[in-house]
Design a protein that fits this description.
- The strands form five sheets. A five-stranded mixed sheet has the order 6-10-9-8-7, with no helix packed on it. Strands 15, 16, 17, 18 and 19 form a five-stranded antiparallel sheet that branches. It has a four-stranded antiparallel sheet with strand order 1-22-21-20.
- The chain has three helices and 22 strands.
- It is mainly β.
- Strand 13 and strand 14 form a beta hairpin.
- The longest helix has 10 residues.
- The termini are far apart.
Protein backbone atom coordinates (compact mmCIF):
# COMPACT_ATOMS: atom_id res chain seq x y z
CA UNK A 1 0.00 0.00 0.00
CA UNK A 2 1.38 3.39 -1.02
CA UNK A 3 1.46 6.40 1.27
CA UNK A 4 0.20 8.86 -1.32
CA UNK A 5 -1.49 11.96 0.09
CA UNK A 6 -3.50 14.91 -1.17
CA UNK A 7 -1.49 18.11 -1.42
CA UNK A 8 -4.62 20.07 -0.54
CA UNK A 9 -5.28 19.09 3.09
CA UNK A 10 -8.86 20.38 3.12
CA UNK A 11 -11.28 18.31 5.17
CA UNK A 12 -14.68 17.46 3.73
CA UNK A 13 -16.40 15.49 6.50
CA UNK A 14 -19.78 15.53 4.70
CA UNK A 15 -18.42 14.06 1.46
CA UNK A 16 -20.96 11.67 -0.11
CA UNK A 17 -19.80 8.16 0.69
CA UNK A 18 -20.67 4.48 0.59
CA UNK A 19 -18.29 1.74 1.65
CA UNK A 20 -16.92 -0.66 -0.91
CA UNK A 21 -19.03 -3.82 -1.39
CA UNK A 22 -17.22 -7.01 -0.41
CA UNK A 23 -17.84 -8.62 -3.81
CA UNK A 24 -15.91 -5.86 -5.62
CA UNK A 25 -12.56 -7.58 -4.95
CA UNK A 26 -9.60 -5.55 -6.21
CA UNK A 27 -11.68 -3.19 -8.38
CA UNK A 28 -10.58 0.29 -7.24
CA UNK A 29 -13.80 2.20 -8.03
CA UNK A 30 -17.35 1.24 -7.07
CA UNK A 31 -20.76 2.65 -7.93
CA UNK A 32 -23.33 4.07 -5.54
CA UNK A 33 -26.05 1.48 -5.08
CA UNK A 34 -28.77 4.17 -5.16
CA UNK A 35 -27.76 5.49 -8.59
CA UNK A 36 -28.86 7.41 -10.52
CA UNK A 37 -28.92 10.35 -8.15
CA UNK A 38 -30.70 12.56 -10.73
CA UNK A 39 -33.51 11.04 -12.75
CA UNK A 40 -35.25 12.19 -15.92
CA UNK A 41 -37.45 15.30 -16.16
CA UNK A 42 -35.82 16.92 -13.11
CA UNK A 43 -37.36 20.37 -13.59
CA UNK A 44 -39.68 22.31 -15.86
CA UNK A 45 -38.70 22.23 -19.55
CA UNK A 46 -35.67 20.00 -18.88
CA UNK A 47 -35.86 16.38 -19.98
CA UNK A 48 -32.50 15.13 -18.74
CA UNK A 49 -29.57 16.25 -16.59
CA UNK A 50 -26.17 14.60 -17.04
CA UNK A 51 -22.44 15.31 -17.54
CA UNK A 52 -22.38 17.83 -14.69
CA UNK A 53 -19.93 19.13 -12.08
CA UNK A 54 -20.07 20.00 -8.37
CA UNK A 55 -17.94 21.64 -5.67
CA UNK A 56 -18.21 22.13 -1.90
CA UNK A 57 -19.61 25.55 -1.05
CA UNK A 58 -20.38 27.15 2.32
CA UNK A 59 -20.64 23.81 4.10
CA UNK A 60 -22.95 22.38 1.43
CA UNK A 61 -22.61 21.62 -2.29
CA UNK A 62 -23.29 23.55 -5.45
CA UNK A 63 -23.03 22.49 -9.06
CA UNK A 64 -23.37 23.34 -12.73
CA UNK A 65 -25.55 20.89 -14.60
CA UNK A 66 -26.05 20.09 -18.25
CA UNK A 67 -29.79 20.42 -18.71
CA UNK A 68 -31.11 19.05 -21.97
CA UNK A 69 -34.18 21.19 -22.62
CA UNK A 70 -37.35 19.70 -24.05
CA UNK A 71 -36.56 21.51 -27.32
CA UNK A 72 -33.28 19.58 -27.48
CA UNK A 73 -30.95 22.52 -26.85
CA UNK A 74 -28.57 22.06 -23.88
CA UNK A 75 -27.87 24.80 -21.36
CA UNK A 76 -26.26 25.02 -17.94
CA UNK A 77 -28.38 25.12 -14.79
CA UNK A 78 -27.35 25.78 -11.20
CA UNK A 79 -28.02 23.09 -8.59
CA UNK A 80 -27.91 23.03 -4.78
CA UNK A 81 -27.54 20.17 -2.32
CA UNK A 82 -27.18 19.61 1.41
CA UNK A 83 -25.48 16.22 1.03
CA UNK A 84 -24.14 16.06 -2.55
CA UNK A 85 -26.70 13.36 -3.42
CA UNK A 86 -30.15 14.98 -3.34
CA UNK A 87 -30.33 18.04 -5.59
CA UNK A 88 -32.64 20.96 -6.27
CA UNK A 89 -32.25 23.20 -9.31
CA UNK A 90 -32.87 26.79 -10.27
CA UNK A 91 -35.69 26.77 -12.79
CA UNK A 92 -33.99 29.30 -15.06
CA UNK A 93 -30.72 28.56 -16.84
CA UNK A 94 -27.58 30.37 -15.65
CA UNK A 95 -27.54 33.98 -16.85
CA UNK A 96 -24.14 34.93 -18.27
CA UNK A 97 -22.96 38.52 -18.75
CA UNK A 98 -19.83 40.10 -20.16
CA UNK A 99 -17.30 42.15 -18.21
CA UNK A 100 -19.53 45.22 -18.57
CA UNK A 101 -22.63 43.48 -17.26
CA UNK A 102 -24.30 43.08 -20.64
CA UNK A 103 -26.13 39.88 -21.57
CA UNK A 104 -23.73 37.33 -23.06
CA UNK A 105 -25.67 34.09 -23.39
CA UNK A 106 -24.25 31.19 -25.40
CA UNK A 107 -26.21 29.63 -28.24
CA UNK A 108 -25.89 26.33 -26.43
CA UNK A 109 -23.79 25.02 -23.55
CA UNK A 110 -23.03 21.48 -22.49
CA UNK A 111 -20.72 19.24 -20.44
CA UNK A 112 -19.68 21.89 -17.90
CA UNK A 113 -16.78 21.56 -15.51
CA UNK A 114 -16.47 23.63 -12.34
CA UNK A 115 -13.05 24.37 -10.87
CA UNK A 116 -11.93 26.77 -8.17
CA UNK A 117 -8.62 28.53 -8.87
CA UNK A 118 -7.56 31.02 -6.21
CA UNK A 119 -10.57 33.27 -5.46
CA UNK A 120 -12.72 32.43 -8.48
CA UNK A 121 -14.86 29.51 -9.53
CA UNK A 122 -14.52 28.83 -13.24
CA UNK A 123 -17.12 27.14 -15.42
CA UNK A 124 -15.79 25.60 -18.62
CA UNK A 125 -18.11 24.07 -21.19
CA UNK A 126 -18.60 23.29 -24.87
CA UNK A 127 -20.22 26.23 -26.64
CA UNK A 128 -21.14 27.49 -30.09
CA UNK A 129 -18.38 29.74 -31.43
CA UNK A 130 -19.10 29.28 -35.15
CA UNK A 131 -18.63 25.60 -34.42
CA UNK A 132 -18.07 23.57 -31.27
CA UNK A 133 -15.54 25.35 -29.08
CA UNK A 134 -14.72 26.08 -25.44
CA UNK A 135 -16.76 28.52 -23.37
CA UNK A 136 -15.59 29.89 -20.04
CA UNK A 137 -17.00 32.02 -17.24
CA UNK A 138 -16.11 32.99 -13.69
CA UNK A 139 -18.02 33.66 -10.49
CA UNK A 140 -17.20 34.36 -6.87
CA UNK A 141 -20.67 33.96 -5.38
CA UNK A 142 -22.73 31.85 -7.83
CA UNK A 143 -24.97 34.84 -8.38
CA UNK A 144 -23.08 36.79 -11.05
CA UNK A 145 -21.52 34.79 -13.88
CA UNK A 146 -19.10 36.71 -16.09
CA UNK A 147 -18.09 35.15 -19.38
CA UNK A 148 -14.46 35.22 -20.47
CA UNK A 149 -13.42 35.39 -24.10
CA UNK A 150 -13.43 32.01 -25.86
CA UNK A 151 -9.93 30.63 -25.30
CA UNK A 152 -9.64 28.75 -28.62
CA UNK A 153 -11.09 28.77 -32.11
CA UNK A 154 -13.25 25.82 -33.22
CA UNK A 155 -13.10 22.92 -33.04
CA UNK A 156 -12.36 21.88 -29.47
CA UNK A 157 -14.07 20.08 -26.60
CA UNK A 158 -13.55 18.58 -23.14
CA UNK A 159 -11.72 21.51 -21.55
CA UNK A 160 -10.65 21.15 -17.92
CA UNK A 161 -8.74 23.69 -15.81
CA UNK A 162 -6.13 22.62 -13.28
CA UNK A 163 -7.10 23.80 -9.77
CA UNK A 164 -4.00 25.94 -9.35
CA UNK A 165 -1.53 27.82 -11.51
CA UNK A 166 1.64 25.98 -12.51
CA UNK A 167 4.78 28.09 -12.90
CA UNK A 168 2.59 31.18 -12.71
CA UNK A 169 0.20 30.20 -15.49
CA UNK A 170 -3.31 28.83 -15.71
CA UNK A 171 -3.21 25.35 -17.27
CA UNK A 172 -6.00 23.79 -19.33
CA UNK A 173 -6.56 20.36 -20.82
CA UNK A 174 -8.58 20.09 -24.03
CA UNK A 175 -9.20 17.83 -26.99
CA UNK A 176 -8.94 19.49 -30.42
CA UNK A 177 -11.18 17.94 -33.06
CA UNK A 178 -12.74 18.71 -36.41
CA UNK A 179 -16.36 19.44 -37.22
CA UNK A 180 -17.22 15.78 -36.72
CA UNK A 181 -17.53 13.91 -33.46
CA UNK A 182 -14.54 11.56 -33.51
CA UNK A 183 -11.25 12.51 -35.25
CA UNK A 184 -8.22 13.91 -33.42
CA UNK A 185 -8.89 12.01 -30.24
CA UNK A 186 -5.89 13.11 -28.13
CA UNK A 187 -5.59 15.29 -25.01
CA UNK A 188 -3.51 18.47 -25.20
CA UNK A 189 -2.41 21.02 -22.61
CA UNK A 190 -2.27 24.82 -22.95
CA UNK A 191 -1.09 27.63 -20.66
CA UNK A 192 -2.19 31.22 -20.13
CA UNK A 193 -1.01 34.06 -17.87
CA UNK A 194 -4.45 35.71 -17.86
CA UNK A 195 -7.09 33.34 -19.36
CA UNK A 196 -7.05 35.49 -22.51
CA UNK A 197 -3.83 34.62 -24.33
CA UNK A 198 -3.08 30.91 -24.64
CA UNK A 199 0.09 29.17 -25.74
CA UNK A 200 2.78 26.66 -24.76
CA UNK A 201 0.59 23.93 -26.23
CA UNK A 202 1.73 20.41 -25.36
CA UNK A 203 0.54 16.94 -26.26
CA UNK A 204 -0.42 14.92 -23.17
CA UNK A 205 -2.04 11.62 -24.11
CA UNK A 206 -2.87 9.78 -27.31
CA UNK A 207 -5.90 7.59 -27.70
CA UNK A 208 -4.96 4.23 -26.24
CA UNK A 209 -3.90 0.90 -27.67
CA UNK A 210 -6.37 -0.84 -25.39
CA UNK A 211 -9.81 -1.47 -26.86
CA UNK A 212 -11.75 0.63 -24.34
CA UNK A 213 -9.93 3.87 -25.27
CA UNK A 214 -8.84 3.13 -28.83
CA UNK A 215 -11.11 5.66 -30.59
CA UNK A 216 -10.49 8.81 -28.53
CA UNK A 217 -9.75 10.10 -25.03
CA UNK A 218 -10.76 13.32 -23.31
CA UNK A 219 -10.46 15.15 -20.04
CA UNK A 220 -12.86 14.42 -17.22
CA UNK A 221 -12.74 15.75 -13.68
CA UNK A 222 -10.28 18.48 -12.73
CA UNK A 223 -6.88 16.93 -11.94
CA UNK A 224 -6.28 16.21 -8.26
CA UNK A 225 -2.91 17.26 -6.84
CA UNK A 226 -1.26 14.42 -4.92
CA UNK A 227 2.18 13.51 -3.66
CA UNK A 228 2.51 11.16 -6.68
CA UNK A 229 1.51 13.77 -9.26
CA UNK A 230 -1.77 14.97 -10.78
CA UNK A 231 -4.40 12.25 -10.54
CA UNK A 232 -6.57 12.45 -13.66
CA UNK A 233 -9.87 10.69 -14.21
CA UNK A 234 -10.54 10.87 -17.94
CA UNK A 235 -12.85 9.20 -20.45
CA UNK A 236 -11.89 6.75 -23.15
CA UNK A 237 -14.08 5.72 -26.06
CA UNK A 238 -14.31 2.49 -28.03
CA UNK A 239 -16.03 2.08 -31.36
CA UNK A 240 -18.19 -1.02 -31.70
CA UNK A 241 -20.54 -2.42 -34.35
CA UNK A 242 -23.37 -0.99 -32.25
CA UNK A 243 -21.95 2.47 -31.50
CA UNK A 244 -19.57 4.09 -29.04
CA UNK A 245 -18.81 2.93 -25.49
CA UNK A 246 -17.54 5.53 -22.99
CA UNK A 247 -15.52 4.32 -19.99
CA UNK A 248 -13.58 6.05 -17.21
CA UNK A 249 -9.81 5.69 -17.04
CA UNK A 250 -7.07 6.90 -14.70
CA UNK A 251 -3.61 8.42 -15.15
CA UNK A 252 -1.04 10.32 -13.10
CA UNK A 253 0.68 13.34 -14.63
CA UNK A 254 3.97 14.92 -13.60
CA UNK A 255 3.41 17.56 -10.94
CA UNK A 256 5.60 20.25 -12.56
CA UNK A 257 5.25 19.26 -16.23
CA UNK A 258 1.78 17.74 -16.55
CA UNK A 259 2.18 17.05 -20.25
CA UNK A 260 4.33 14.12 -19.06
CA UNK A 261 2.31 11.03 -18.12
CA UNK A 262 3.99 9.10 -15.30
CA UNK A 263 1.43 6.30 -15.04
CA UNK A 264 -1.51 5.34 -17.22
CA UNK A 265 -3.79 2.48 -16.30
CA UNK A 266 -4.26 0.00 -19.12
CA UNK A 267 -7.59 -1.11 -17.61
CA UNK A 268 -10.69 1.04 -17.37
CA UNK A 269 -11.67 2.05 -13.85
CA UNK A 270 -15.39 2.14 -14.61
CA UNK A 271 -17.42 1.03 -17.63
CA UNK A 272 -21.15 0.78 -18.40
CA UNK A 273 -22.67 -2.24 -16.66
CA UNK A 274 -25.86 -0.92 -15.05
CA UNK A 275 -29.21 -0.18 -16.71
CA UNK A 276 -28.85 3.59 -16.27
CA UNK A 277 -25.46 3.50 -18.06
CA UNK A 278 -26.39 1.04 -20.81
CA UNK A 279 -29.86 2.38 -21.61
CA UNK A 280 -30.63 6.02 -22.34
CA UNK A 281 -30.54 8.81 -24.89
CA UNK A 282 -26.97 7.78 -25.77
CA UNK A 283 -26.44 4.22 -24.51
CA UNK A 284 -23.26 2.82 -22.96
CA UNK A 285 -21.78 5.97 -21.45
CA UNK A 286 -19.85 6.62 -18.22
CA UNK A 287 -18.51 10.19 -18.50
CA UNK A 288 -16.58 11.71 -15.53
CA UNK A 289 -16.97 15.43 -14.83
CA UNK A 290 -16.12 16.12 -11.18
CA UNK A 291 -14.68 14.78 -7.95
CA UNK A 292 -14.88 15.63 -4.27
CA UNK A 293 -12.02 14.77 -1.90
CA UNK A 294 -11.62 14.49 1.86
CA UNK A 295 -8.01 14.79 2.99
CA UNK A 296 -8.69 13.24 6.40
CA UNK A 297 -9.94 9.90 5.05
CA UNK A 298 -8.55 9.77 1.52
CA UNK A 299 -12.08 9.40 0.18
CA UNK A 300 -12.93 10.48 -3.37
CA UNK A 301 -16.45 10.81 -4.76
CA UNK A 302 -16.71 10.82 -8.57
CA UNK A 303 -19.67 12.38 -10.38
CA UNK A 304 -20.30 10.99 -13.84
CA UNK A 305 -22.87 11.22 -16.59
CA UNK A 306 -24.66 8.00 -17.50
CA UNK A 307 -26.11 7.28 -20.95
CA UNK A 308 -26.60 11.03 -21.57
CA UNK A 309 -29.67 10.71 -19.36
CA UNK A 310 -28.66 10.55 -15.69
CA UNK A 311 -26.05 11.54 -13.09
CA UNK A 312 -24.28 8.78 -11.19
CA UNK A 313 -21.93 8.66 -8.23
CA UNK A 314 -18.93 6.39 -7.74
CA UNK A 315 -16.36 6.13 -4.97
CA UNK A 316 -12.73 5.28 -4.40
CA UNK A 317 -9.90 5.92 -1.95
CA UNK A 318 -6.75 7.76 -2.90
CA UNK A 319 -4.31 5.01 -1.90
CA UNK A 320 -6.38 2.33 -3.56
CA UNK A 321 -6.87 4.02 -6.92
CA UNK A 322 -3.27 5.28 -7.17
CA UNK A 323 -1.91 1.81 -6.33
CA UNK A 324 -4.17 0.27 -8.97
CA UNK A 325 -3.14 2.78 -11.65
CA UNK A 326 0.55 2.28 -10.91
CA UNK A 327 0.27 -1.53 -10.71
CA UNK A 328 -1.53 -1.68 -14.08
CA UNK A 329 0.35 1.13 -15.81
CA UNK A 330 1.47 0.96 -19.42
CA UNK A 331 3.04 4.15 -20.81
CA UNK A 332 4.53 4.71 -24.24
CA UNK A 333 6.83 7.29 -25.77
CA UNK A 334 4.03 9.73 -26.64
CA UNK A 335 2.93 9.63 -23.01
CA UNK A 336 6.27 10.19 -21.35
CA UNK A 337 7.71 12.84 -23.69
CA UNK A 338 7.15 16.51 -22.93
CA UNK A 339 4.80 16.86 -25.89
CA UNK A 340 6.61 19.24 -28.27
CA UNK A 341 7.40 18.52 -31.93
Amino acid sequence: MSTVTFIDKTSLPNIPWQEKPAQMGDAPVWKYTENPIIDRNPLKNVARIFNSAVVPYEGKFIGVFRGEQTNGVPYIYLGHSEDGIHWSFDEEKIHFVDENGNDFMPGYAYDPRLVKVEDNYYIIWCTDFYGAAIGMAKTKDFKKFVRIENPFIPFNRNAVLFPRKINGNFVLLSRPSDSGHTPFGDIFLSESPDLVYWGKHRHVMSRGYEWWESLKVGGGAAPIETSEGWLLFYHGVAGTCNGYVYSIGGAILDIDNPSIVKYRCENFLLTPTEWYEERGFVPNVCFPCATLEDADTGRIAIYYGAADSYVGLAFTKLDEVVDYIEDHSVVRDQDTEIGIK
